[in-house]
Every structure is written in structure tokens, then in C-alpha cells.
Amino acid sequence: MGDLPYSEEEFMNSKKEMDMLVANSRADKKIQPNALFANLGEVTRALSSGTVTWARKSSLWPLQFGLACCAMELMDFGSARIDAERNGYLMFRATPRQCDVMIIAGWVTKAVIPEIKRLYEQMSEPRHVIAYGECATCGGPWFESYNIIKGIDQVLPVDVYVAGCPPKPENLFGAMMKLNKKVGGDIEED
Ligand code: SF4
Known about the structure:
- By secondary structure, the chain is mainly alpha-helical.
- It folds into two domains: 8-46, no CATH class; 58-183, Rossmann fold (3-Layer(aba) Sandwich), CATH 3.40.50.
- It has helices at 8-12, 14-28, 33-46, 49-58, 70-77, 113-122, 134-138, 169-183; strands at 101-105, 128-132, 160-162.
- It has a three-stranded parallel beta sheet with strand order 1-2-3.
- β1 (101-105), α6 (113-122) and β2 form a beta-alpha-beta unit.
- α2 (14-28) packs across α3 (33-46) and α5 packs across α8 (169-183).
- The longest helix is centred in the first third of the chain and has 15 residues, at 14-28.
- It is globular.
- The chain starts with 7 loop residues before the first helix and ends in a 7-residue tail after the last helix.
- Bound molecules: iron/sulfur cluster (SF4).
- Iron/sulfur cluster binds next to α7.
- Iron/sulfur cluster (SF4) binds next to α7.
């Protein structure tokens, strides 16, 4: 991480970074703005688990991120035809720290794995992964390629798989509904 004033571990884990801010703030007896938000986060965590779970499952925000042609279908997911916003799925965020869901849309080359891992680690917990399409699930047409991995599950834990090449955006809507139920505790984890 070069000469950054924090360790790589702190940089990669937003919760640890927030906890550090709170601890430093208390030690100095000064409330910094960021630490204030972190303290509010503690209050939120202290609320009943039912309220927190309801909020989490009702606002699954995906990371604004695509790898190959499946990302075109991802754009359609945001169109008026699918209207993903009606279920609270469409707050695509450009920063991983505000996201709950990473949608792997496209083939995953070995070269891009470190960047995907970094984005994943920067997402707040609990975080989820959807393998969107054949390439993300098993390598797709490049199953035997020397530089494309046979599915993102070799790198990250996957919550829901979506079949198709290209997969339909309607099926992504269905995958988000499934994830919605999983986060709400209505589906058992595998
Ligand atoms: S699954 Fe098909 S549409 Fe999607 S990235 Fe692979 S080749 Fe492209």
C-alpha cells in the first residue's frame, strides 16, 4: 500500500476502519464527523435485529460494475421495462463501501481477480455476490481458456447464480428477489 497512513488491513475492511475511528475519537475525547457516523452505526446495530434485517433486505444496493457483454443486460435491468427500482434494487453505487451486492456480469480473467477481490473486501458486511450469466458461473464459452477462470465461485462466495448467455434481466430481478429472501432469513443458507 506504499506510504499510506493506514495499514492495508484497515484500508480493505471498512468496519475495522470505522471501529478505529470511534476508538481514536473516544481516546481524544473529540467527536470527529466520521466517528459520529460510525457511532450512529453502532446505535443502528443495537436496534432490534428484525428492524435491521428488514432494512437490509429492503435496500439491496448493487455495485456499479460490469466485466463484459453481460453488463449490457445489467443496464437493461435498470430500464423502465424491468423497473427494478420498484423493489429497491436500483441504487447502483459507484463506491463499494455503500453497496450490499456485487453482480459479476461477464467473464473473469485471472488478471482482474485482484481488483475484484479488492472491491469485494471494501464492501460493507454483510455483502453478497450474484454470478450473472454463464461466464461468471462456469467460464461460459471460454471454459477452456488459459486466462479466464471457471466461475467466480473460485474466488468469492456466491449467493445466487443466474443462468443464460446472455442471461435475461428478468432473471436478475428473480435472483435479487431470491437474495432478498435469503437476507430476510426466509431461505436457508447452503
Ligand atoms: S455469459 Fe454470454 S453474454 Fe454474458 S459475458 Fe459471457 S459470453 Fe457474454
